[in-house]
Amino acid sequence: YKRPMSHANYFGQLVIGPAGSGKTTYCKAMQDHSESISRPIKIVNLDPAAEYMPYKCDIDIRDLITLEDAMKEANFGPNGGLVFCMEFLLDNISWLEEEIK
């Protein structure tokens, strides 16, 4: 199978890890590097609990739901709220698909 030439190739990185492992620092460095070589990228934040981003997020789950809202609405603690947010994202996956387009 050959992909038609009209379709662009897209690549992605999924950056995951525990708190304090350098995810934010890495994403900021990737954005700075990409800008320095004039290569456009889009950064997607899927952390509904993120409070500070030193870089621009092109797509942000916090535009759909935040951990704070989930905890208040469903009366969950932080862990239950995070699970609720991920389930909410799955239930509204069309939002993410449209944002990526």
Verbal overview:
It contains four helices and two strands. It starts with 22 loop residues before the first helix and ends with a helix. The chain has 101 residues and is mostly helical. The mean pLDDT is 89.
- Report the helical percentage: 40-55%
* Unreliable stretches covering 5 or more consecutive residues: none
Structural class by helix and strand composition: mainly alpha
**Count of alpha and pi helical runs:** 4
Task: Give the distance, in angstroms, between the N- and C-terminal Cα atoms.
Answer: 23 Å
SSE run: HEEHHH
Global mean pLDDT: 89
Radius of gyration: 16 Å
| Side-by-side strand order of the widest sheet | 1-2
Tally of DSSP β-strands: 2
Strand content: under 5%
The gross shape turns out to be globular
Query: How many strands, what sense, and barrel or not for the largest sheet?
Result: 2 strands, parallel
